[in-house]
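Lecture 7 notes: from sequence to structure.
We start with the chain below.
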Amino acid sequence: MTNKELIHSDFQIKEVEAVVRRDAFTTIHVHVPPYETNILRNLFGRENVTVFERPSKTTITPEQEYDRLCAKYGHEVVAKVFGEDDGDRLMEIVQGLMAEGKLPAQEQTLEKAHELDSTQESKGAKKR
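Predicted structure tokens for the same chain:
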């Protein structure tokens, strides 16, 4: 997948819940893409950020993620975490997460066939 293929495309990627302890009296819960937890750990300390898996997904536009993160946290913080490459490293991470969510076509076909078989079996079981 090239950067040209990603232009103005929205993708679904998994989302995590980060619990951030800002101080002794303040704890916040945020739902963010997994790579954003690196920025939170950099800002608040590794020991103050706990990450939990979530079954939900979030929609992102990959070519705009670097700019979104810079607007939210500041360019210096994002560059410190992901490097001074104008988002190239971040784009690699995002592409990896997008590829992780996709199954090869053959596996998708097998999954659909298995779902169809199990649906037909359950219908047959109800008729008996």
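Points to note: Confidence is low (pLDDT under 50) at residues 103-111, 118-122. The beta strands are 11-23, 26-32, 49-60.
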